[in-house]
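Q: Give me the 3D complex with zinc ion.
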Amino acid sequence: MPRKERVLYPKPRSSFLLVKCASCATERVVYSNAAVQVKCDSCGEVLAEPTGGRANILAEVIKKMD
Ligand SMILES: [Zn+2]
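A: Here is the predicted complex, encoded as structure tokens.
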């Protein structure tokens, strides 16, 4: 059996997400495991809330950036 060389964080797979604010349609990139609340730069709408693991994304996810 092949051994895995890379040591990954013992957390769910994370990624960066391009999201669109529901209020003003501004797009921005949000980390899927954001540990702090992410707000829209333009209108202050909350786009993502930390949950301790994967962030709760409240905005529309347009695509995943990898
Ligand atoms: Zn906004």
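A quick observation: Residues 21, 23-24, 26, 40, 42-43, 45 surround zinc ion (CB under 6 Å).
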